[in-house]
Amino acid sequence: MTIIREQDLTDSIADALQYISYYHPPDYIHALYQAYQREESEAARDAIAQILVNSRMCAEGRRPICQDTGIVTVFLDIGMEVRWDARDDVETMVNRAVHRAYTDPDNPLRASVVRDPDGARINSGDNTPAVVHINLVAGSTLGVTVAAKGGGSENKARFSVLNPSDDIAEWVLRTLPGMGAGWCPPGILGIGIGGTAEKAMLLAKRALLEPVDIQELAARGPRSHIEELRLHLYREVNALGIGAQGLGGLTTVVDVKILDYPTHAASKPVAMIPNCAATRHVHFTLDGSGPATLQPPRLQDWPQITWEGAAGARRVDLNGISRDDIAAWRPGDTLLLSGRLLTGRDAAHKRIIDLLSSGAKLPDGLDFRGRFIYYVGPVDPVAGEVVGPAGPTTATRMDKFTDAMLAETGLLGMIGKAERGPQGIDAIRKHRSVYLIATGGAAYLVAKAVKAAHVVAFEDLGMEAVYEFDVQDMPVTVAVDHEGNSIHQLGPQQWRARIAGIPVQID
Questions:
Q1: What burial letters (b/e) apply to 272-307, b meaning 16+ CB within 10 Å?
Q2: Is position 339 within any domain?
Q3: Is the pTM of this model over 0.90?
C-alpha cells in the first residue's frame, strides 16, 4: 500500500505548472528545429525562428512561452493500492495547486478561466478550476500528467461521427483547412477514433501528450494500421501548404498522434484536437516517497538560432502614420513598428461597441483615431519588466466588431494572429484599413519590444483591459492589405501548388 500525502500532490502539480509555462518539451523543440532546417518559405522560416528564439529566452528567463498560459488539464492515473493522507477531495487538491502556480509572484501566470460561461463570464482570478480526469488503474503509484492548453488551439477542436465505411483521412484533410491558423502551427494533431463521443475527444486530448516520434516511425516503417494512418496524415496535412502561422510553407504539423478504442458497429466517432506552438505538458509519478522532482532540460537542447528582426523589414513610425502610408503595404511585407498603439480583446470590443451603440462617449484616453489596436491580453509583469509576455490572440473573434470599430472610432489598422474571416476582410476592404500579424508562440520575444505600458480603460476586465503600449521595432507581417488581399489565402495556395510538384520529405 502506498500513501500519497496531500502536500506532495499539490506541491508537485504547482511545480509542474510553473515548469511547463517556460519549458517546451525537448522532443517538440527538436522536431521544430528539424522543420526550421527543412523550411523553404522565408515567411514561415522566420516565424519558426521567432518561436525557437522565444522558447530559449523563456527557458533562460523562466517566463511564460505564451501569454495564454492555458486552461489546466490534469490526468490522474490512480493505482488501486494507493491510499491518501489528505483532508480534501482530489479535485480540490488539484485546484489548490493551480491557484498557487498561477499566483506565484516570481512568475505570475495569466488568469484566463471565466465562470458562468454563458452569462456574466467573470474571471476566476487564479485560473481555477482545472479540468481533472481520474482513472483508476492497477498498481500502487499515482501517475500525473499536467497540461496547459491555450484557447487558440482548443477552439479548433473538431468532432464528427462518421459512417463505418467513411474515410478518416478524407475527413481530416477536408476539415483541417477550415480550422484556419488560429491554433498557431507548426504543432501536433491529436486524433481519437472510436468509443463514444466523449471517449473520442478524450483520446484525442491524451494523444497530444505522447512523445513526438514521427521521424523514428518513418525510419523503421509502420507496423499497424494506426501507424500507417499517422504517416499518411503527416504527409498529406503538410502537403496542404498551410505552413507556420498559416503563411504557407512545408511544415504545418511536426507529428500526428492517434489513439483508438472499440466502438459500436454502427459508429465511427472521430475527434481532432491540435496542439499549438506553445505545446506544454509534463508527466511524473508519485510513489509515496515525496513530491516529484522535475529536472530542467539542458539549455544545450535548444538550437543556437539568432533572430534580429526580419531581413529587409520596413520600419514604421506609428505616431505619424497615415492612410496613404498603409496603402503601400502588401501581403507578406515585414514591418518593425515603433510608437504608441492601443490593445483590446473580445470583452473590450464588446464594451466599446455597446457604448457607441447607446450614444455614450468612450472613456478618456480611449482615442483610436489614426491608430492601431493590438489584440492581446498580456501576462502581468515581474520586477524589471514593462509588461509580461504579450503575444497576439486570434483575430477572427474580433471580426464581428471590425466594421463598427473602423467606421465609428477612426481606427486605422489592427494587429493579431492568424487569418481574418470574410466579415473581417470585407470591413478592411470597405474602410481601406490593414491587418497585421505578430507571431503566435513568441510572446516573450514580442514583449521585449514594449518599452512602456499602462491601462487606459476597463481595468476591471483584468487581462482584457485596454492598455496603451509604446513599442520599438515590434515585428509584424502584413496579412491583409487595404484591398482585402490576404496572405493566409495567397500563401497556402502558392505552397500547396509548389508542394504538389515536390515530394514532402520525411528525414
A1: bbbbbbbbbbbbbebebeebbebeeeeeebbbeeeb
A2: yes
A3: yes
